[in-house]
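tool_log.txt
---
The assistant was asked to compare two proteins side by side. It first ran the structure predictor on the initial sequence, then on the second. Raw inputs and outputs are pasted verbatim so the downstream comparison step can read them without reformatting.
(1)
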Amino acid sequence: MFHKGTWTILTCLITLLTLTPGEIPRASTLPVIVNPPPSKAPVARIKKIKQASSLAKVNATVLRDGKPVVATLQTELFTEDVIATGANTSIVIVSLDPDRSRDDRCLIGPNSRLIIKGADSIFIRFGKMLSMGKSYFKVQVKHAYLAPEGTEFEVTVSSTDESTRLVVLEGAINVGIENNGPSKIKALGAITIGERVVRGKASVVSKKVGGVREQVQSALDWTNDVILAGQPTYSTERIIPHVASSEERVTAFRGARRDAILGRSKEQAAGYETLGNIYADWEDGAEAIRAYGNASKVNRSKAKQGPPVLLTNLAEAYRIDGQLEAADKTIREVLALSGRYAPALNALGNIQLDRARIALDKGDFGQAKTLAEEARINYENSYQVAGIAPDKREPMLAGMLLEEARSNYKSSYQAASGQSAVVRAVAQANTGESHLVVAEIARREGRLPDARREYLAATQAFDSSKKLYSKYPYSVTGMGQALHGQGIIARSTRQTRQADQFLGQAETQFKEALDQHKDMVAAYVGLGDVNRDQGREQDAMANYTLAIQFHPDNPAPYYSLAVLLERTNPEQAANYFRSYLRMERESFRQGEKVKHAQESVTGIKTPDVLKMTLEAAREAIVRSGLTVGRTRDEETDQYPEGTIIRQDPAPGQMVSPGTPLNVFVARRSRVSTPDVSKMTLEAAREAIVRSGLTVGRTRDEETDQYPEGTIIRQDPAPGQMVSPGTPLNVFVARRSRVSTPDVSKMTLEAAREAIVRSGLTVGRTRDEETDQYEEGTIISQDPSPGQTVLQGATINLVVARRSRVRTPNVLNMTLEAAQKEIARSGLTVGQTTAQETDEYKLGTIISQDPAPGQTVPPGTLVNVFVARNQSGMVVIPDVINKREFDAIRMIQEAGLIPQVVERRGAERAQKDRKVEYYVTSQDPPGGRGAKQKSEVRLWLQAR
């Protein structure tokens, strides 16, 4: 029965109704708006869909010409449409008759089947419905015609015997019955209508039934649930809230509706007034006006003008419904009684601000600024007088405030919240709204410093409002709008970073408002506007969609969503523009928005582009207000190459603005594009040229799935029929690139770690002598730092090494000669060790460490081993200039006995104990042979 996408949207709507507080939902699907059938005008639309529980599936459909149509919010209804509801679902439809109240509504219960018979009537086959309105929904059943003279009545038709039960809640119903004269059933009356057969003859009869109050209460119970489903959890913008919370509002609504229908005169008046207040909080101006009117009828106040509090609320209801003239006239009656009544001053400011916004949309900036400043004065006056207690000199004001407290249902809001703080908070937020209008005027006129000052003033006003009453959500969304405006200014002056900061802060404000009220339309629209200016169009559309899904009667998100869809889906955009025009209040249908929307939904005749060149056809299509759709080539010899053979839609068709117009272009012979995937670039070029095409753009694309230098993909794709010489673009596989790290002055080990960490490999490592870098650190690298290379590429390193010398060959030299040779080579004589041997000449070098020919740093110690024979002869070491300690050790190691003959500088040594003695002379001299344990005399000098 349902289209595949229907359940997706309806499930999304169910989810919206079951979200926990503070949870911000996401929209993934645009709400469906079905195109109207040709040559028909809609007579009603579906306003609300209510399932029995959050777990139940929505089961409602519209049959049109025997075919099911998606039944969603905003589905338009036409003559002869059949509406069917299942066991779990109730729906609300509203009238679209322009000559009557645009918000007359009909509540259709579960398991019902009705037919739209025309612009003013419904035929009920079976099921139940309740009509609320002035006169729109006249009802037909099998045996009777019901014409209302009031506002509320319930009709139930049995699915078995087709009998009808009528219960009148308000007003009166004229009942026309076959075979009987007309009768009238007044409020709190009920009858049943059915067939009776007597002696084979059938006649239609009716009879009054008892238990009317119980039947009325039953009607109230099921319709209350339908009416309350999906109502806003917050109050209308800019009015002073009448009830503190949505929970209190629901409780008050149920009690007030019961009192208004079933109560006595005093209870009815209070009930109707409370209903008016609640409908005003829900932004349902038409129902609020009706409720206030009923309150006045029941109350029958002796005052000519009516109760001031009721008149103030009525003025706001007129304004919400778009009746600005009636609102202005009504509120001035109140202010004529007292110019210091804060709610009335606020209401007057609201009227002026609405008119300022209308003038702004029309481009009348001077008038818009004047009205916005007048509104601000009234808001500021409302703020000032809200905190002033009335004195004896103003008994009228004191009486109005007392009456205001009494008029609130059980006065719970007045007592709990402190109305003065609430009034002042709303007045401050509304002052901020007036600053936003003046800021927008300055921005459009190019006076950016003035606009920036106004946005800042708005921010301060919203902040003050939030401090006075933190639960007022429009101080948060207003702050978001002010920050958004500053972001737009920053972007227009190319202050990109500052613009991003402002837009981010604005986004935070709107999300904060959604934390308070997950169904807040202004927050979703504001968030969508910020997303749009951030370039995040998908996020913007998602937020506009959520606004529509939560409250489908608000025109703002339809317009914003339509503007975003104009380029990509002009047909759907036209549908959203159409919904915007249908729901926008009459007084606001004057400016550029409405003009834009009307132009978008007006049909355009498709131009004739046949036989034009493609370039000329494109110009003609765009000039006609359409968009160029698909362009396809078609081989033919009957038309000149490059001219239009045919078009879709055909010439002269009426289509929506922006509709794509597809054209077919004459082409001569075609060639098939070769498949060059996985070829090398050189091989691909040869294949392309061989196929009669030309090589187009060659672009690299990083990938690890194809060998380096091979073709990943091509455009056009393989097997496409194209004109000879068509460029074929190819995309060549390139490995992932990385930037080479800077490893200079690192140790070799640290450099290796840095290279591997960067996704590269260590290549060749070579040493280079230098005194400018520390030993073992990196002097240079190849590739150099910061180069972009393939991942896994090698980096070659040059490592710092000190200068080297070769160790001389001192073997068979005498010790003295060896010492001189080692010193001449830039090395240092190390330890001299005697070693017994008969193979070498006494006193000559028999081995050395390091060995001859080794490359070592300058100054390296060279240890030598000196031959001594077994007869006990040893070589006397040369200890001249050696420290006393070292000299004695060397002599003793050679097997000789050291003997100190003289120490010079002894006095100095006593004064300074750190002075050391060095050998200045020895006897016998070093290098000579001597018997073991011979004495070597030493002369020392202190240094």
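(2)
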Amino acid sequence: MKIILVPITSFKYNETAVLPFRIVDGVSPEGFDNLAKKDFTLGSSSIDKAIQGELSGLQVTSKSGMTGEGAYLALHGIQTLVSDNMPLVVINGVPYMPSSSESQLIGGYSRSIFRAFNINDIQNITLLKGAEASLYGSLASNGVILIETDGATSDDMNTKISYDGSFGTNWRGKNLPLMNASEYKSYLSDIGMTYYNNMETFFNDFSFLSPDESDAFNYLYQYDTDWQSVLYQNGITTDHLVRVEGGDAIAKYDISLGYMRDEGVLKNTFSDRFHTQINSNVLVSKKLEIGATIGLAYMNGRYQEQGLSLETNPLLAAYRRAPVLSPYKSDMYGNLLETYAGYNFGNISNTDFIVSNPMSIIGSLSATQRQYDVNMRTNLVYKPTTHFQLSGIFGLYYNYDQEGIFIPGINNSDIVPQFDAFGSSKNAVRQGINEQFNMFYSLNGAYNTIWNGIHSLELRAGTQALMTSYESDMGVGRNTANDFYQTLSDVQSIGRYFSGYDEKWNWLSFYASAGYTYSDLAHVAFNLSADGASSTGVNTSRFGLFPSVSGKLMLNHFSLLQNAKSINHLTLWIDYGKTGNSRFSNNYGRYYYVSSLYQGIAGIVRANVPNTEIKWENNTKMNVGLDGAFFNNRVNASFLLYDNRATDVLMARSESSLYGTGFHYSNDAAIDSRGFDASLQVIPVYTKKFKWILGGNVTRLVNKVVSLGTTDEFISTLSDNATLITRVGEDPYAFYGYVADGVWATTLEARNAHEGKPLKNRNGVEFKAGDVRYVDQNNDGVINDDDRVVLGSATPDFYGSAYSRFEFRGFALDFNFIYSLGNEAYNAVRRITESSSDFSNQSTAVMRRWTMDGQLTDMPRAKWNDQVGNNDFSSRWIEDASYLKLHDVTLSYTFTHKVWNLFHGGTFYVTGQNLWCLTNYLGADPEFSYSYSALMQGVDYAKVSLPRTVKVGVNLQF
């Protein structure tokens, strides 16, 4: 047998892994990926940023550049339709299930689930993809992320102090190409002629377009404002953590105290976090050990609305606001005043032309959030013998989240009022509280033994229970006396309403596992979980069985390969198992009610037809893998084939209005997810002074709907009438619309489009020269729903990462890339800025618009109100959103010797993040996620793009 010693400091090498109910050393990575603290990217601001691209198979998509939003996580695609599609997160052995709902008050905002944690408090992260995930039963359908924080476990009795700190700046990425003042004036002339009956009336309103320079109001239109630039700032980002650890042979402690501030690239946006983590461990006797971890965090921040709110999203206002206008009012001499300019088009009071002043939104709209977060765990370990161990855990999680937003508009008419059935909302107040309380109990017994030096047996059994409670309360009102009154007590009774929910969700599990190893040659294991959740219906079995079996062969220990000098490690493994998904609302299986306004009074209405036989979703997983290390560990590779089938998947069926509700949930769908994960690390150069390391990973994903019960498809319609289809044989939530094939160039070809007659839209309006040429799929002469086809989906074909590292005498230079290939996106922003259907500013692409007979172009004519449907949901707005990004580049210097008898070691670094992106996507950034919902992936609803960041930082040990 040949033994190769690998330094524990080796890059992306880790001998310690977090596995269910235990932490193990010296394990080989079959069925899971692992990341240790030493390999976190320096300057990572959060857990999701640290694991992005690091764990093969795990897709991590940053939701936006709005501070505090975090990232969407998915393992091997979409495997559910209405349940939670995110992996189960387990922190210190306790399932961590914070709310991932979109804010009901702040448009487009959903906070990061990891926001309360400092990345420097994290010790180890493991992603379970194989058989061991079944030990979490109906929580583990989407994989499991196990996280271990720093704890009081060091064998070093000396008191140690360390400091981790960084300071940097955020700045915006690219601007969208919008018309300048000269280009916009040309567009105004075209759109104006489709709105006004004659040119004289048009020039009476838009007098600044006429040659007459003596008009009294021309001074209002003399500007060329870059509205995007006035919104942004270079924000400061800083993160600091002080740690003290020590103790003696009996009791140990580890205490950290941290502060983080992250200023967004939008002016007046920021988030703060004050955080502490206290760890203690007491050896009561040789057989009994008690440990505790308490994490406390206070977070607050100020934000802006995102999403398709033309009135209050500052980005959309900046894209649409006319460049000829100023952010501020001015006197007749052109001198700017301190008051924001109103939403009217200069002195024109026609409400068809109004656009909110982006500077006013940024400067006066107040959207705030305040959170108190408590995460506690107490564990007890009793070892009566060297082979047997009993352990118990009690965990508690509490989060109090207070949100509020005030939208002004009475004192200064600069933000467009929102209109609904109850009139206009000149100003608005929204306030709410979300409260979550989780309790967790676990009892675990483990037995392990080795006999004859070649037989190893490990047995484990236990039970765990999780009780969660969610409560949300909110109130909305409008039209206070003036903008200085900003509370719900000041709003008018018309349009005022209150809403909320109170939901309890409980889970109980019994589990057992057995593993046998023979002479380091072969290993087999069996796992079984029997668990149930309160989300299932009262008329179905409350408990389900979730078994798994796995086996592996350590091929390099077989006599045939034992003496192969080039093979250091080679393992073939396979597992097959069943997991489930009960992470859906208790309300699906029972009656529940929602708030609704009726004649200005808030009431409640029934929201569903309950299904009392609803049950957990099932997911059958099969993995086959090969892992190896070669040439003195200079080459490390792994390959995993995965085949997942989710059955009994919940789907929402539309019901007749006679039921008084819109949805009925049933276990009718099935979804397949197949492909492979592959990773490779190569060290081309390895000397005492210099090392060069190359590596990366790739995931292939084929994600298809297999069954939808008695139907073949269902359509989801978004707020702007964009449609997504879930159809058998296609990706879940695929984009679904018309195919646009250019623009009708001549009047003659438009008139003869269909058998010598013009094509018509669903309302009987004829398409003319300059209109979009939609493909008439059924050749009936009418463009309607029957002509819609699948246009692609947000599911990538491939995704992963690549990296390169150079090391020389303590210096290191790292390049980390992430990529996604084959995913499409719906660019709703471009649908707005290329509509050519109103008086708002447009993209420079509209300069290619059709203007005369015979013109060949891909941009339709300017036409007020677009009665023909040139901007209907179609392939015009679906783009290839593949990308290759430089996730970060970092230069660092690490020393391990004493300096001035003060520092015992440390690292200095400078890092740049999100500095470069290669993509064909025309939006601000191809990486985005509207929310944690699988439905909304790939939907670009005008969220803030990810900032570019540069930081300098230190990690010092005293």
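---
observation on (2): The two ends are 42 Å apart (CA to CA). Residues 181-193 form the longest helix (13 residues).
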